């Protein structure tokens, strides 16, 4: 394990976990944020059941890809094995955020995806936010956390998604790093709220949905400040 990188990640992951209550995405001790190391050999994740105002970099937990704690005095989040299942399968995912944010969780509890009604949703997700199938009784009484990761992966195997709702549970949100995953979690909550409050009847036009996502996230994206190196 690269100790220097682990210490840097502890600072970054602590900062992003502390953003969750600041952005209204969690209450009490629920929710968690993690980030994987550059060589994908370990993750840093929030400790289980610790109040957000008590979090500090030295309280973050370093876990290897088998789930073994390799540094830290506290137990890692109960969702650690869910995070690990996702990291093991998708190399483009570098950070994961899980919340029980109110509006997104309403859809998860209804076992319904969040429909794409407008360009705010299109900019962030480019499609509806999908929901997993319910876990079977055997999956629940077996290894709940690993099986939660597996049903998320079932969805991600079928489509590229920046957020997946776990049926009866809540959103798991992905990014290139912890910060991007928290940003995306905030957007997931925003568009879920808009979908519920708006009581819309018609989805956004497919062409508009795709255009707004591609201009921000596609290979020829042109949103934001980007240097044209050919003209420098």
From TrEMBL:
Pfam families (alphabetical): Aldolase_II
Reaction(s) the record says it catalyses: L-ribulose 5-phosphate = D-xylulose 5-phosphate
GO biological process: pentose catabolic process
SMART domains listed in its UniProt record: Aldolase_II
InterPro entries to which the protein is assigned, alphabetical: Aldolase_class_II_sugar_metab (IPR050197), Aldolase_II/adducin_N (IPR001303), Aldolase_II/adducin_N_sf (IPR036409)
Molecular function as annotated in GO: aldehyde-lyase activity; L-ribulose-phosphate 4-epimerase activity; metal ion binding
EC number from the UniProt entry: 5.1.3.4
Assigned GO CC terms: cytosol
Enzyme class, broadest EC rank: isomerase
Boundaries of every Class II aldolase/adducin N-terminal domain copy: 11-196
Family: Belongs to the aldolase class II family. AraD/FucA subfamily.
Name of the protein in its database record: L-ribulose-5-phosphate 4-epimerase
């Amino acid at each position: 394990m690269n100790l220097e990188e682990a210490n840097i990640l502890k600072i970054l992951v602590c900062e992003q976990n502390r953003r969750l209550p600041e952005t209204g995405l969690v209450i009490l001790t629920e929710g968690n944020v993690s980030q994987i190391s550059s060589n994908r050999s370990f993750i840093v994740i929030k400790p289980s059941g610790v109040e957000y105002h008590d979090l500090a970099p030295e309280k973050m937990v370093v876990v290897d890809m088998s789930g073994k704690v390799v540094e830290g005095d506290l137990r890692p989040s109960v969702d650690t094995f869910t995070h690990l299942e996702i990291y093991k399968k998708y190399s483009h995912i570098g950070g994961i955020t899980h919340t029980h944010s109110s509006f997104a969780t309403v859809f998860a509890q209804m076992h319904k995806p969040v429909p794409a009604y407008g360009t705010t949703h299109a900019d962030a997700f480019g499609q509806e936010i999908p929901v997993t199938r319910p876990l079977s009784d055997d999956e629940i009484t077996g290894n709940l956390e690993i099986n939660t990761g597996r049903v998320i992966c079932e969805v991600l195997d079928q489509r590229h998604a920046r957020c997946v709702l776990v049926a009866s549970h809540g959103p798991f949100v992905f990014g290139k790093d912890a910060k991007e995953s928290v940003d995306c979690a905030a957007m997931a909550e925003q568009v879920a709220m808009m979908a519920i409050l708006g009581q819309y009847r018609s989805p956004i036009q497919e062409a508009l949905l795709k255009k707004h996502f591609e201009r921000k996230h596609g290979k020829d994206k042109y949103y934001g400040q980007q240097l044209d190196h050919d003209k420098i």
